[in-house]
């Protein structure tokens, strides 16, 4: 009987662990566009200031989480493609945030130009139903972007 109780308790621990691990609030970017897309995001911090970060390289056919530690209700994103048919494609429309085009960056007070940054347009993702958003943003083969909330 004691062995059965410990097995039941062990099984309950496994179920609880699996339930917690699947309740992740990730922001994932998928690329179906014909060339690599670099992604930047911006989000409001708890003190009300804005943070912008980039660049996450997403090769065609791949999906990557931007940062699994981010816990926000919503965010903004920008995508920039590698040259394709002699043109660079951009995803971003609505609100400007600071970016650095030459390398990776992390800017505080990013709703204004800071340090060596330039202001570029970002698209707002939908708000989460709860406290933390879990979403997948896909850059389709023909352009545009699709946002799916989880």
Q: What would you say this structure looks like, in words?
A:
This protein is mainly beta. The chain contains 1 helix and 11 strands; from the N terminus they run αβββββββββββ. The protein has one helix at 2-21; strands spanning 27-31, 37-44, 50-58, 63-65, 76-81, 90-91, 95-99, 105-108, 118-124, 135-139, 146-149. Strands 2, 3, 5, 6, 7, 8 and 9 form a 7-stranded antiparallel sheet that branches. Strands 4-1-10-11 form a 4-stranded mixed sheet, with no helix packed on it. The longest helix has 20 residues, at 2-21. The chain starts with a helix and ends with a strand.
List keywords for this structure.
150 residues; 1 helix; mainly beta; 11 strands; globular; disordered N terminus; four-stranded mixed beta sheet
Layout of SSEs?
Layout: H1 2-21, E1 27-31, E2 37-44, E3 50-58, E4 63-65, E5 76-81, E6 90-91, E7 95-99, E8 105-108, E9 118-124, E10 135-139, E11 146-149
Parallel strand pairs: 1-10
Antiparallel strand pairs: 1-4, 2-3, 2-5, 3-8, 5-6, 5-9, 7-9, 10-11
């Amino acid at each position: 009987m004691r062995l059965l109780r410990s097995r039941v308790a062990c099984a309950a621990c496994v179920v609880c662990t699996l339930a917690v691990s699947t309740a992740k609030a990730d922001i994932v970017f998928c690329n179906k566009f014909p060339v690599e897309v670099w992604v930047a995001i911006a989000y409001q911090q708890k003190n009300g200031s804005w943070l912008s970060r980039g660049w996450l390289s997403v090769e065609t056919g791949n999906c990557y989480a931007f940062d699994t530690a981010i816990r926000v209700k919503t965010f903004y994103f920008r995508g920039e493609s590698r040259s394709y048919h002699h043109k660079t494609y951009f995803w971003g429309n609505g609100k400007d945030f600071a970016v650095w085009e030459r390398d990776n960056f992390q800017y505080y007070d990013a709703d204004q130009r800071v340090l060596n940054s330039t202001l570029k347009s970002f698209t707002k993702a939908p708000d989460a139903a709860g406290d933390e958003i879990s979403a997948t943003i896909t850059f389709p083969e023909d352009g545009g972007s699709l946002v799916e909330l989880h």
